[in-house]
């Protein structure tokens, strides 16, 4: 069958078919090259709507739960509510690792999931299994009475299951959109913030009314109800990719790829620190646990709107430009607002941080998949996206636990000033990520041999 190679940096540009020998020779040199059938017809609006909604709700449930872990962090570390032995509950780094391990596996599992997806005849075997694993992990976590049991259930089982659903769905979505890909992906990824907005107060309410065991049981059942129908909708527009799932060595040596990976590592590490400690820091300022959950929901709500608005704005001013602005804004919020709140700036400054950081952080999270497709091409999207998110998973593993270890080393007076070193650490991570995405912008233009204001 004839094939077409999607090799342009712009996904809308298609090269004409070439001879088999020429095509295969260039495939061997191309990172993550994939062959797609010419018989694929343009997607209907109905199909695009289905992709938008199903992927949106996938993000709603998987990443929404990850971004709501701060509620559990506060519950697990409070002596009067924790199901853990007090010696374990006092270890903030170890408790934080429950959430970051689950979130890290959601992304880091790509290096294992993508090769499987490229080989199975029906990807729904993977997505359905992932939906079930997520639900089982949450339900089983309700029975945990020790950290190692939480690691097995709320972290390992849930995290691997969410990765099995996440990567097939997120890899398929960009194929269905061309000119408005930034806006489409912004809407899709806004599901993560929307999930946190809805699930954070619900989780807090359930913990206060029915306790930990039934809260996790109900979250598990809700996860199954939301994700199981989604898992049956997974389908490729151009057919199952037949190319590599690993990144080509020649591409991996490029400055853009190296800096893109380093930015992903640092951003993921820094991004989870405020989310993990938002509720506990709020209580040091004098807020109740219930209102702290409201602030976490507010952060996620702003993040939801941000992903949609910044995704649409990125189609106008350039997607890489928008990522740079979002990263610099995130670092600025941490250094300027959170640090001021910890130094005695008070509640108003802290609320300003909750809103400002939610707005700025949405840019990178919403636009990364689109930028990857734009820089490396659709044909390499699956392999590059899989590796970059694997690196993000590694970053998520150590971001909040290191922050917890820093906090553990401080005095235990319960004052906001105890968080000063954690904030400096987080700000350094996000500033480093900002410099990296600026480097990606520069070297991408250099490799293309032209500088454009909009990129």
Short description:
By secondary structure, the chain is mainly alpha-helical.
Describe this structure in words.
It is a multi-pass membrane protein. Residues 1-41 are annotated as: Disordered. This protein has 455 residues and is mainly alpha-helical. The protein has two domains: 45-239, Growth Hormone, Chain: A (Up-down Bundle), CATH 1.20.1250; 243-454, Up-down Bundle (Growth Hormone, Chain: A). The chain is 75% helix and 1% strand. It is built from 17 helices and two strands. It has helices spanning 20-29, 45-67, 69-76, 86-89, 92-108, 110-117, 124-141, 147-172, 181-209, 211-231, 249-252, 255-284, 289-317, 319-345, 347-376, 381-408, 420-448, and strands at residues 3-4, 36-37. The chain has a two-stranded antiparallel ribbon with strand order 1-2. Helix 2 (45-67) runs antiparallel to helix 5, helix 3 (69-76) packs parallel to helix 9 and helix 9 crosses helix 15. It is globular, with a radius of gyration of 21 Å. The model is unreliable at 1-39 (pLDDT under 50).
